[in-house]
Specification:
Elements: H1 4-17, H2 28-38, H3 40-58, H4 61-68, E1 75-76, E2 89-90, H5 93-104, H6 117-127, H7 136-152, H8 155-165, E3 176-179, E4 195-198, E5 204-214, E6 220-227, E7 237-243, E8 254-259, E9 270-282, H9 289-326, E10 328-329, E11 332-333, H10 338-369, H11 375-406, H12 419-431, H13 436-450, H14 453-465, H15 471-492, H16 495-522, H17 537-543, H18 550-553, H19 556-562
Parallel strand pairs: 3-6, 4-6
Antiparallel strand pairs: 1-2, 4-5, 5-9, 6-7, 7-9, 8-9, 10-11
This protein binds flavin-adenine dinucleotide (FAD).
Length: about 575
Amino acid sequence: MTSPVQQGRDALRAWSANQPENFFAADPYLQAALAAVWGQDRYQEYREELAHLGGAAAALEADVRLNHRNHNLPRLDPWDGLGQPTQPIEHHPSYHRIGTVLYGSGQLRALGEPGHWLYALSLFYLGAHLGEAGHNCPIACTAGVIKALQAVGTPAQQERWLPRLLNTEFGYAYTGAQFLTEVQGGSDVGANGLVARVADDGSYRLFGEKWFCSNAGADLILITARLEGSEPGTRGLGLFLAPRLLDDGQPNHYRIRRLKDKLGTRTMASGEIDFDGTVAEAMGTLDHGFLTAMTQVIHTSRLYNAFACLGYAQRALHLAQGYARHRQAFGQPIIRYPLVQQSLAKMAALVASQRALALHLAALQDEQERGELSPERKAALRVLVNLNKSRNAEHCRAIITEGLSVLGGNGAIESFSPMPRLLRDVVVCENWEGTHNTLYAQTLRDFSARSLHEPTLAHLRELGAGLAPDANRERLTQRLDTLSSNLQDCLNGDAARASLEIKGICRGLADVAAGLCLAREGETWPLFPGAENHPSPALLLSHFLGLGSRAEIDDLSRLEALA
Ligand SMILES: Cc1cc2nc3c(=O)[nH]c(=O)nc-3n(C[C@H](O)[C@H](O)[C@H](O)COP(=O)(O)OP(=O)(O)OC[C@H]3O[C@@H](n4cnc5c(N)ncnc54)[C@H](O)[C@@H]3O)c2cc1C
């Protein structure tokens, strides 16, 4: 006869032992979605590497946990024993083991050819099941440097820097960073004051400080600075590229003042940096500096941000679903309780819909890179990436909080599961690369000054028109019509009022976009072995922001199917 204590611990042990061993294999939705976008041949070509990383990433959990111990966090170590400058940041060996797997997956190498964003971001998403793990932000920043070099770099710059950025050997491969924020302004980038002076040899020297510098030990830094004498505001900002080491191997005249003690993303080093004559090159034409930063660099990191949050949210779903099957309360597994099923249903529906939209955006990005996107669809992509950056992070935070509650008190315990870490990381993701308000304001400007709502709405209508005619299509298109009319009123109204109303419209548009992508993706599930038994998109949509009636949403047999 086992004691109640023993039974309780056995159930937890069974849950702990039944975590997915492969994040890709555990996810038939993702497999079905990728097979549908790429077609079977291309899917088969990539499948092996996705499955390989899915297994390798799942095996890294112990290292991620080890790296997160307070005494193993990154440390500033700028001098060697002889008082000479050295590698500025010291990381625990677990950080290097994780990096070896994530960079070794070839996710950055894939960006060397146009049309591989969906593949690269799918690999990134699998790694993000671990949380930030010290490397998500650096990988996203490196992708931004690659994209900027490809778009506006000179042939000499491309030849010099791209091979090391695309390299898969962690430690040898260069990693990138992007420093915009200063103490006086993050959202208000035009307030930036870091100065660039032209040197005698025609290169630039940077002077001043940056307040938030993630991946502070990066090899190549993209940095905004104001050329002496140029106009104020964002117009006067140039974009520069600065290597960590000069050609002679000496450090490039900047000093990390200190590392920040952060709420989340703790194993990734974010510092405050003083620049004192840092040698830099122009990245593209300097009078387009802010434009290049926004269209190439920040656009890329907003896309990556969504996949990071989604990786965390999907992991929270795995944890909560498994826990609910094993944990007993009042004589039965908690998954039998409709309230727990409702939590899991909401999480599953939100993960599926958010991911469907993110995958759609990555596929559009591929079309853009291959030169296949019309200017209208390019505009829709720009708007949807911004809307999604904000709404996706909000939903993913809600998913993880819900998952934490399914684990009850254990959900709050650091040594019990990755859940607290995932929550801390998602909160950081919500606020960098543009806060919610910044994204609402940018969208309002895009709509009112450039009429970008027109191609965006047209793109969403086109997605709706491609769906099989059913009740979901009807509901989604009705919602889109309502939002479109609210938007017109908002744009015609008073500016201060519009700045408030745009928030609900942005959220609504992002939700409809996710719903449409989910409905479209769901049409492919029955065709994919392993995904055919998943709940229908209709069922998910009825849970996704209550698109169905209350009775439909709380239908007990539906809840059970979803959970
Ligand atoms: C862990 C971490 C790492 C980071 N790493 C980097 C990095 O590597 N490089 C980098 O450049 N930056 C980095 N950042 C900075 C980040 O991008 C900024 O924090 C972010 O852009 C917001 O800027 P801020 O902090 O100055 O907030 P503020 O701009 O001061 O905003 C404060 C509040 O005011 C609101 N607000 C501002 N303007 C408006 C407006 N017009 N209308 C309505 N509300 C408004 C904001 O939404 C926010 O809620 C990092 C941040 C964190 C937390």
